[in-house]
Amino acid sequence: MTTRICFIRHGETDWNVEKRIQGQIDIALNDTGVRQALAMAFNAAHHNFDAIYSSDLVRAHDTAKMLAERRSLNVQLLPQLRERHFGIMQGLTAAEGKVRNPEAHARYSARDPDYDLETGESLRAFAARVEAAVEEITHHHANQTIAAVTHGGVLDILYRKATGRPLHTPRDFSVPNCALNWFRLEKQGGEKIVWHLDAWDDHHYLAQVIKDSAE
């Protein structure tokens, strides 16, 4: 049993431009983000997706709806695909966080896998949530092709899972808005699922891409 999933980061928001940490704060797409989502939808629509999933945050849901309209499908909301909850760092830029919460900023920057940012979610808990959500999708869509619109932090977790990279190492790969990222999940022997990364960061159709914005 094999399931192919195309994971897509939502379009740009004003907070992406400001490098402000959104986390689970519900920020809408800006004009560039809408254009990115439309370009993505136009180019991705030739794939025969059997279903389209999305985080329930508006920036992801609105991006997903543009693809769903092209494919005449409904968007299935899955809150487990939400961005990480960044606790006391949400709503701040990294520079602001360094001044207001220096200890939290230090542990955030160091990618401490067990630190929950006091009121948020640890990297380890976040990864477990994301991986469980993806495997749930896989169980429901054997031998199908799925699209899922989500967030930069989620894609970071997926990349690490499929390539065997640990949670605490610095991110040395880009996660552009509205790029296509293709994963293949194979169910082997009982319930074991093996993850493969087939293609990363296909954004040839975008005139503007943000490489390093905050989640």
**Distance between the amino and carboxyl termini:** 33 Å
Mean pLDDT rating:
94
Extract low-pLDDT stretches. 208-214
| CATH class group | Alpha Beta
Q: How many distinct beta strands?
A: 6
Q: Give me the Rg, rounded.
A: 17 Å
Task: Characterise the protein shown here.
The structure is a single chain. With 215 residues, the chain is α/β, with parallel strands linked by helices. It has a single domain (2-85, 124-202), classed as 3-Layer(aba) Sandwich (Rossmann fold), CATH 3.40.50. Helix content is 36%, strand content 18%. The chain contains 7 helices and 6 strands, in the order E-H-H-E-H-E-H-H-H-E-H-E-E. The protein has helices spanning 14-18, 31-44, 58-71, 94-100, 102-109, 123-140, 152-163, and strands at residues 2-9, 51-54, 75-77, 145-150, 180-187, 193-202. A 6-stranded mixed beta sheet has the order 3-2-4-1-5-6. Helix 2 runs parallel beside helix 3 and helix 6 crosses helix 7. It is globular, with a radius of gyration of 17 Å.
How would you summarize the topology of this molecule?
Blueprint: E1 2-9, H1 14-18, H2 31-44, E2 51-54, H3 58-71, E3 75-77, H4 94-100, H5 102-109, H6 123-140, E4 145-150, H7 152-163, E5 180-187, E6 193-202
Parallel strand pairs: 1-4, 2-3, 2-4
Antiparallel strand pairs: 1-5, 5-6
Helix pairs in contact: 2-3, 4-5, 6-7
List keywords for this structure.
single chain, Rossmann fold, six-stranded mixed beta sheet
Overview in brief:
The chain is of the alpha/beta class and 215 residues long.
